[in-house]
Amino acid sequence: MKLLGISGTIIGAKTSVLVKTILDEVKRKHSDLEVELLDLRNYDMQFCDGRKLEEYNQDTRDIIEKVSQADFYLIGSPVFNCSFPAPLKNLLDLVPPSAFRHKVMGFAANGGTYQHYLMLENQLKPIAGYLRAYIAPSYVYAHSSHYNLSNEISDEEILRRIEDLADELVYMQSSLVKEYVSL
């Protein structure tokens, strides 16, 4: 099974740190899983405009392939102006909806106010529902005060939530695979 963590922004480092921390927790507890971080800062992703897949640049095609080939997802996003950033929306537009169907999707976000966690509930979870993904019930929201001066997550409650989400993602995906095999 392959878990793909997506850092859905092209600026800043906190989202990537948050996603990587959760992926590291999954890997620590489940070394048999394949875990990969897709950090959009490292790609020259083109805008979705309806052209054929082969007409996009190599980076864009690589992103679509990585997302399509994953078995389940951890999607990370910063919160800008009470919403998620355009690069993440663009990724969701580029990837065929069928790539997400019947796959587990969990969320993590970071922002500058304590109320911005609502973006996960009001925007990303409904999109996942539209894509027919199985949505992990819990998520991690980290406020900028939860990071130390070295840009590492230092808040004990957030670290506990990271551990819980890591367990939940693997449990849900494992249960689905077992259920699918037994059908």
TrEMBL record:
Domain of life from the UniProt record: Bacteria
Keyword Zinc-finger: no
Chain ranges of the NADPH-dependent FMN reductase-like domain: 1-144
Transmembrane annotation, as ranges: none
Keyword terms of this UniProt record: Flavoprotein, FMN, Oxidoreductase
Pfam families xrefs: FMN_red
InterPro entries: Flavoprotein-like_sf (IPR029039), FMN_Rdtase-like_dom (IPR005025), NAD(P)H-dep_FMN_reductase (IPR051814)
Protein name, entry field: NAD(P)H-dependent oxidoreductase
The species this protein was found in: Bacillus xiapuensis
Upper classification of the organism: Bacteria, Bacillati, Bacillota, Bacilli, Bacillales
